[in-house]
Amino acid sequence: MSSKPFQFKEFTIKQNKTAMKIGTDSVLLGAWVDIDFLPESILDIGTGTGIISLQMAQRSEAEIIDALEIEPNAFEQAVENFEDSNWEDRLFCYHTSIQEFTNEIDEKYDLIISNPPFFNSKHKETESNRALARQTESLSFQDLLSATAKLLSETGNCAFIIPFNEEDKFLKIAKTYKLFPIKITRVKGTKTTPIKRSLLQFSFQKSIPKINELIIEIERHIYTEDYKNLVKEFYFKM
Fold first, then answer.
1. Domain for residue 194, yes or no?
2. Domain of 225?
3. Is residue 108 part of a domain?
4. What is the spatial distance between Cα 220 and Cα 218, in angstroms, rounded to a whole number?
């Protein structure tokens, strides 16, 4: 994928320093997550280039948007992208793991969001990604959800995008931390292809989750209206 800057409607993502390029997963999650409950503080775990944090800055009035990134090059890239944005005063990136962060921080967040980088393994042949893979091998679903449960405010929400074939496992682990799904969207590339991703939003309050399906393309580079409506705040052309 290109290392050229990616221009969104209200911000630019530079991606020349890291192998963590802009991908559909992050943009989907940042556009999809329900923030109607008006979170005042947001934590983005594994921010990569900072794309989701910047989406949250554009979409919300949250005064605090903290991001975590363990891979050094991605951390530097995220900091640069934050500083170049219109929301620099609301964005902060920590160069640390979620485990270390959880041990050091007492604050709670209204929204915790993550596109876990350890699921994106297609570029692991590069040296930087091998390093990233080693550093994140220990970040299991258990670790991610345990940390989320500790850092999430009582009335907060958390949201993730994961491979669909891991959905049942993820839901079971979340339940052990009293995190219950409120919204589930299963994502397909086209109408005839298998479900590829699960978008999941949780809270500590039990409810009947809203479940639906999102199809991205009618055919190659011809996008569905549902997908276009979802991401129209960010992309210039679809």
1. yes
2. 6-231
3. yes
4. 7
CB atoms within 10 A of CB 11: 20
Q: What is the pLDDT of residues 198-208, one digit of tens each?
A: 999 999 999 99
CA distance 44 to 56: 9
- CATH number for the domain spanning 144: value is 3.40.50.150
Assigned domain for 237 exists: no
> pTM for this structure?
0.91
CA-CA distance, 187 to 194, in Å (whole number)?
9
Query: CA-CA distance, 65 to 112, in Å (whole number)?
Result: 10
Q: For 108-148, write each residue's pLDDT tens digit.
A: 999 999 998 654 444 444 445 444 543 445 578 999 999 99
**96: three-class secondary structure by DSSP:** coil
Structural domain total, the chain: 1
